[in-house]
């Protein structure tokens, strides 16, 4: 597709990545490492939320952690693919 016709989305720095996990979760640690790298490279803000401190998150996601949201929408769970996250954030 020509760049002239590519759909424009929000700039990476206008996005928000949320990692939902819990302490002591090795998959959550792995997910955080990928998020830190991708978000650091692109200048995307990110936050970490703990299901042990937020009952509503626990009820919704406890079987899927770690869960990654992009702009409040579920992007993935269990394993974070660096290339897929980067593509989601840049639109490329």
From TrEMBL:
InterPro entries: Glutaredoxin-like, Glutaredoxin-like_YDR286C, Thioredoxin-like_sf. Gene3D superfamilies: Glutaredoxin. This is Thioredoxin family protein.
